[in-house]
Amino acid sequence: MISLSILINSTFIVFTYFISLYNNNRIDSRNNNKEVEVSILEPTVVTAQQMQAYDKYTIETIGMPSAVLMERAALSVIATVAAGGFDLTHVLVVAGTGNNGGDGLAIARILHLRGVDVKVLLLGDERKLSKANKEQLAICRKYQVKVGHSIKDFREYTVIIDALFGIGLTRDITGKLAEAVKKINASNQPVVAVDIPSGLDATTGKILGSAIRANTTVTFGYLKVGLTVGDANKRVGKVIVKDIGIYAPEF
Ligand SMILES: NC(=O)C1=CN([C@@H]2O[C@H](COP(=O)(O)OP(=O)(O)OC[C@H]3O[C@@H](n4cnc5c(N)ncnc54)[C@H](O)[C@@H]3O)[C@@H](O)[C@H]2O)[C@@H](O)CC1
Ligand SMILES: [K+]
Q: Where on the tree of life does the source sit, at the highest rank (predicted)?
């Protein structure tokens, strides 16, 4: 009788031990995934205004330097394009004048320093560059990254990185910028959108004038509502959310 109870007890202890090992492994592998995937912790969907508030909070209240966030944003796009599925023989980065363009310039600089043939097409009024964009452009020029204001044929590039507009787009894209968007779409070359395909409203998902048609969209911090509603399904392609260090205040 006693030996039966010892047997039952020891079986229970061994069983409990293996269960705890299983649980520990599960937690470990989840943590590993978090690091490897660098994905967000919660599948929160935010508007452009919420994301702008989170950017501001992270930079101004927490004290995270904006340049650090931009560098992480750039590296997260590079990790996606380098992971396979894209031909990096001739890369074109289309950059606007805001911080989305700043991300694009940082992407171009890092690719250039890694030996990739990359060119930047800088569109918009250079006198209106955001502070971060200006800094990134100066760094690009010191590293002799090719930066121009026109392109002969978008079809000469094996992949196009769209960094024209991000969540700061407020009105229709018109004129030369709209022409460029149409030509990029007509080129049928693979496009990776930085944060959101340019021309898509990050809150409503509506096309403002015209919008880039992306194969892949790498969006930062949190999924934007505009990537899930309205015209989004015609423009976003595969959406990847990357943690770049911007967190909601309630995090
Ligand atoms: N705040 C930060 O430090 C960070 C910003 N990031 C990037 O910055 C982006 C947001 O940057 P911005 O707020 O500078 O906005 P955008 O880069 O989206 O551009 C907005 C600029 O374009 C102008 N504009 C808006 N609509 C226009 C139109 N139809 N035609 C012509 N000009 C137009 C605006 O007046 C503004 O100057 C994000 O999407 C993300 O990619 C990331 O680098 C992470 C860090
Ligand atoms: K973009």
A: Bacteria
